[in-house]
Design a protein that fits this description.
Distance between the termini: 75 Å
Helix content: 55-70%
Shape: globular
Order of helices and strands: HHEHHHHHHHHEHHHHH
Number of helices: 15
Largest sheet: 2 strands, antiparallel
Length: 377
Amino acid sequence: MKNQSIEQHGGLLSRISEQFGITSMVSTYLIPEDTNNFWYSIGGILGIALAMQFVTGFILMFKYVPDAALAYGITKGMIESPTWRVILNFHYFNSFVVFALLFAHIMRVFISGAYRGKRKGLWFVGILLGGLLFGIYTTGEALHWDEVGFAVPWHTSEVLQAIGMEKYFGYDFHDLLAIPSATVKLTQVYAIHISLASIILALLMVLHFYLIREKKITQPYWMTPSGKEAPFSKHIKIWFIWSGIILGVIILVSAFVPRDPGVAPQLLPTSPYFGMHAGPGKLGAKPTWPISWTHGLNVFVGEHLGLEPDIWGTVIGVVMLFVSLALIPYVDPGENAPKNFKEVFDFKKRGYAYLAMSIFWLVFLVGVIQNMLAGAG
């Protein structure tokens, strides 16, 4: 009787796997055994971390209201609540891990030359994913609706003012400092964060994983190919092992590391900045590290290059970051990924690719460091 129950259970799982194509995607899909290591699992770990962002974000939807008069108090209340604090903090700290994994994944793919030949499309989908994650993080920062979060619509207004479009979008500073019109802007940011950007992100993730399957996983350059293959299910197990460790640490941090809700935004009477018309940066508010480079570059172009309005620092920085990444497949031509250390670090052939990646990191680090050193402004 017990064996019959097991067989029925196994048969049910088999039928479900067959109907939804899980068997062909996981069990019978074979990849090189050599890729079952941490470095080739970063993309999958990143995918799981993003899935957890979707889950916790969905839960937070039941508590959060995008009202300019209430949002800061709601966020502050969640941080002070024993239960909601863990969920909100996990969503917050996990976003940092997402960016750390993103940068690690970019460097693994770059050094491995896994963008050559027929994999160029994969690289460009990855760039789009990175840009979208930047946008999602930025909108998420706004939803905290402290003075740092308030900087997001404020800087959006500065960008629109720089190109003379603020009146067409209703993004004048006066609009942001009035609660009714600021609520409209916060609602728009909220809608982009939980729907438009998130849906596009999910679709791009599916496309990215599909292309990886179609284009095949590259062979690790640091080992001699064994010629052995393993089911993709084994690779997924490695994802979950590392994800369990990383996400477990985030849960502990979320539960036991206190987090300040920040200063109330300047449009609220309870804010120490209430009534001030200077921007958040000039009041000393700085963005968190994944987007801290934007404020740093604004300060850099304003103080060192004399370029006003200084929001051009962010615009120039975004262009330089994405152009440098987009150029890499074209300055490092070839059909196949490097097969050994000598080919990977062949600066004679790959020098321009390393130069482009160096520009990417230079822009990012200059912004981050300048943000750390900058005072109010």
